[in-house]
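Changelog-adjacent note: as of this version, every example in the card shows the full chain rather than a window. The one below runs 135 residues end to end.
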Amino acid sequence: MLSNLAAAIPGLGMNYAAYEAEVYRAGLQAIPKRQTEAALSLGMPRSVALRRVIFPQALRISLPAVTNDFIALFTDSSIVSVIAMVELTKTYGILAATTLRYFELGLIVAVLYFGMSYPLSILARKLERKLKGQS
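Full-length structure tokens:
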């Protein structure tokens, strides 16, 4: 029998792995074939062309969606409450129902979620600017 945490981590991991795989696939497919052909015509092996030409461009294209997914992962962690692991939103529901302080506790939960996701969005914005400058 798995513990709640041991079931929650692979559950969320598998859920978001599928989303991330599609985001990266779309990023790679968005790169024109001409880019690969140009790199190969310069004598680059396919692995070097992928690492130096294709992947950096695909990362730049995929970064906004990846950032969005990771921020959504914070808020979607309430999915684990379905398998009996008490997380932030579930704790809010329990405390608010017992204390009848829905607004105050809701505001605290909102601030906590904001505090977890805003630094990630700032980091992503800086990374996007850095990658944009490389083109």
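Structural remarks: The chain has a mean pLDDT of 85.
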